[in-house]
Amino acid sequence: MASTDELLYTEEHNLVRKMAYDFTRNEVMPIIAEHDRKHTFPFELLPKMAQLGFLGICLPARYGGAGMDFLSLGIVSEALEYGDSSVRETVAVHLALHALPIFQWGTEEQKETFLPGLASGDHIACFGLTEPGAGSDVASLQSRAVRQGEEYVLTGEKMWITLADVADRFLVFAKTQPGQGARGISAFILERGWQGLTTGTLEGKMGVRASNTGWINMQDVRVPACHRLGEEGEGFKIAMSCLDNARFGVAAGSVGIIRACIDESVKYALQRRTFGKPIAEHQLVQQMIAHMQQDLDIGELLVWKAGTLKNQGVRNSRETSMAKWFCTEAARRAADNAVQVHGAYGYSDEYNVERHLRNTKSAVIYEGTSQIHTLMQAAYTLGMREDRPLRCPMPAYDPDTWQ
Amino acid sequence: MNVAVLIKQTPDTAELPKVTVAEAESGELQATMVINPWDEFAVEEAIDLSDRFGCETVAISLGREGEIDALKHALAMGVDSAVHVDEAVIDGGDEWATAGALAAAVKKVGDGEEVEIVLAGKMSVDGNSGVIYAGVACKLGWDLLVNVTRIVDIVDGKLIAEQAFEGGQETVEVPLPVVISVAKEINEPRYPSFMGIRKASRATIPSLGRDDLEIDSSCTTRWTDLNKPEPEDVQVRIFEGANVEEKAAQLADALMAEKVI
């Protein structure tokens, strides 16, 4: 019987899959549990991921990228999160929430200026949208940007920002027209070292402890007008298109978690014996493993569908939202079941599954909570939501011009 | 000067225990097939020699029809070309026949510019014979270096290498051509690059059959029986003690009682 890999992916994709999973097994998994335990960021992985091209995997070669397609981004995301959510998050934030928006919305000059350094990993980037009082309700953000000649002056605070204390490039959103709600938001590219820009790390997270999560504070930061991404007032659309990119990586990564939970649970269930037989022979254990496999099969297809639409340059907000919503909830269920299969051992950090369970709780919150995605899907189905064409749609993947 | 690297497609080591006797007998393995991990060191060394001395590199693998995943992996890592040898040419033969087919393939791919170095991993994770490269050297009539940990230089038609042996290491010099088996200490295999992956996925790999190779497929050994060892029953014993010294003393006593030390 042909596997999903053989049915839906090309030989090129399958070579990428082997390479990315080899990287995760050899480089990520031996070190990540200790980083999670100590709440430290695995800086040693950044140059390795950069050298392999992960940080610019789906950027065209002319901007320093690897020139691969969006399905390859999904495959690498899946493989990295098989090891740990934090490592996949680094690629998602750096690439999907910073570099890809510049590729989609930036001027040619901005692409040539910013993208090569991001693709090479010379610069590490993050995305500053969420604020202490504005998460899902993006339109209520309080950060301000006031134009003064050829500069903007930015003031405000961003919260729950992945890589805040690691990055040296920041894509932040602030209101240029405060009275106009979502239409008054603009996007800006900031650089570490600019006066008035400070960052810090947030402590005490339940999961993704090997990732850096923090805050960005802007006190009268002067930003050249050429660092504005898109037109004034286009920030909300840019932010939402960023989420289309990042949610895809989150969905694909969640498939990696489900796969990891299955692999570990199957191995444990075949070894662990109770009542004179392996627990894999107990029907209620089988039920949990069957549900994990069911979720894996569905999740793989949703990710493939969203990635294929991205490759074709077709607007995919609904499909990507569906993939993110389903896969993150499925990963949480899988991790919960995996801990249950492992029993008391699963509750200890001797096994990876408790880490996956803690990590999956964050994924049903960030990049749109499950509740937001539920409402979005209902609105699409009821005809209450429609995606209008963007001024700058994400280009379709073209191997001839991207490589 | 060309370099040929011999590689084998083997089951993923994590899946080796799942391979059944029936699968091994029929050759129809259900496991995920990958490049033999030992051979990755040989591929890396071939690419390194190419970088250092400007030689062309070719990967050669004997396998069933269409078994080219390991060759694609070698191409993705960076070897210049790949050649498949159809396993049918040895007609179910043994290691000696396999060595003959690979030696014939080495001669065949060297039709243009001669191959002067053949690299191989020290063994395969499935067959574990560790004799194929020796057979290849014998069939070719070339010198053989085993367990090489470093290729120091190639000067005036001679190759200088360090090889490890039990209890030490020596530096040796051999005239080319030579067959070399590499130890894992020789390098750290690279991951395939995206550019290499693109090249590999588009490559058409030629397959050599009986009509292409001059070989004697006669073999001297055949499997008469195949068994899977029973899993060992491992007992775990935890030593209790007031301190490390006390626990270590108990451990030492137990190891001596078991005649381990």
TrEMBL record, chain A:
Keywords for the protein's UniProt record, in alphabetical order: Branched-chain amino acid catabolism, FAD, Flavoprotein, Oxidoreductase
GO BP annotations listed: branched-chain amino acid catabolic process
The organism's place on the tree of life at top rank: Bacteria
Pathway given in the UniProt record: Amino-acid degradation; L-valine degradation
Molecular function via GO: acyl-CoA dehydrogenase activity; flavin adenine dinucleotide binding
Location of the Acyl-CoA dehydrogenase/oxidase C-terminal domain: 233-376
Residue ranges constituting the Acyl-CoA dehydrogenase/oxidase N-terminal domain according to the UniProt record: 10-122
Cofactor: FAD
Ranges where the Acyl-CoA oxidase/dehydrogenase middle domain occurs: 126-221
A matching Pfam family: Acyl-CoA_dh_1
Keyword Oxidoreductase: yes
Cytoplasm found in the keyword field: no
Family according to the record: Belongs to the acyl-CoA dehydrogenase family.
PANTHER family cross-referenced by the UniProt entry: ACYL-COA DEHYDROGENASE (PTHR43884), ISOVALERYL-COA DEHYDROGENASE, MITOCHONDRIAL-RELATED (PTHR43884:SF12)
Protein name: Butyryl-CoA dehydrogenase
Origin organism lineage: Bacteria, Bacillati, Chloroflexota, Caldilineae, Caldilineales
UniProtKB/TrEMBL annotation, chain B:
Annotated InterPro entries: ETF_a/b_N, ETF_b, ETF_beta_N, Rossmann-like_a/b/a_fold
Domain Electron transfer flavoprotein alpha/beta-subunit N-terminal: 25-217
Entries under CDD domains matching the protein: ETF_beta (cd01714)
Gene Ontology MF terms in the entry: electron transfer activity
SMART domains according to UniProt: ETF
Lineage: superkingdom: Bacteria
Protein name: Electron transfer flavoprotein subunit beta/FixA family protein
Organism in which the protein naturally occurs: Caldilineaceae bacterium SB0675_bin_29
